[in-house]
Design a protein that fits this description.
single chain, 191 residues, mainly beta, 8-stranded antiparallel barrel, 2 helices, 45% strand, disordered N terminus
């Protein structure tokens, strides 16, 4: 694991000749971590902000639990296009038993975004509160693969919105060019 931030090693006064001048750096080095001279290229990522309009759909639904959505993504720039999501697994009570209301569902699925530049495939993991008036949900989607000029992209998207059969969602996240790591991944490497 590497730290991908630039660093400035503070100079500590040495009490004896040849003493280690940067004990924190030595600790990281002993653990196999490098905070300086990292070979990770600077991230070439684009911040994503937009809106998704989607609805439940059975057209060509490839969900083993029978829950799919189809919609459009707008305001994101190069990702504007159509979306299709197929739920793969679903758990009531958010998978937490009696700790959560049965009307709160956790789920995972596959999201596909088809834009003029290509198609992105993402793994979606989310919560859907069907007990809240009008329905609420949030999801985190990690890019798995892409085609066209979206091939080899990395990154993530967050969706948050409301609805029960038709959904209006705010979309945010980061999509990176090949060879770049999203800021969140760089942060995770530091932790």
């Amino acid at each position: 694991m590497k730290l991908s931030t630039a660093c400035s090693i503070p100079k500590y006064p040495s009490r004896r000749p040849g003493a280690l001048r940067c004990p924190l750096f030595a600790l990281f080095a002993a653990a196999g971590l490098s905070g300086c001279g990292d070979d990770t290229p600077p991230a070439r990522c684009e911040s994503i902000h937009g809106t998704q309009q989607a609805a439940l759909s059975q057209a060509d639904c490839k969900s083993p639990v029978g829950i799919c959505t189809a919609g459009t993504l707008t305001g994101t720039g190069f990702l504007d296009g159509t979306t299709v999501m197929a739920t793969q697994k679903l758990a009531s009570s958010a998978g937490l038993g009696t700790a959560e209301e049965m009307t709160t569902l956790s789920y995972t699925g596959l999201l596909s975004i088809t834009a003029p530049a290509g198609t992105l495939s993402l793994r979606e993991t989310g919560l859907f509160d069907t007990g809240y008036p009008g329905g609420l949900f949030v999801s985190r989607d990690i890019i798995l693969s892409g085609t066209g000029s979206l091939a080899d992209r990395t990154g993530y998207l967050f969706f948050e919105g409301s609805g029960s059969t038709r959904f209006t969602n705010a979309v945010s996240g980061e999509v990176c060019l090949p060879g770049s790591a999203p800021a969140a991944a760089a942060t995770a490497r530091r932790e």
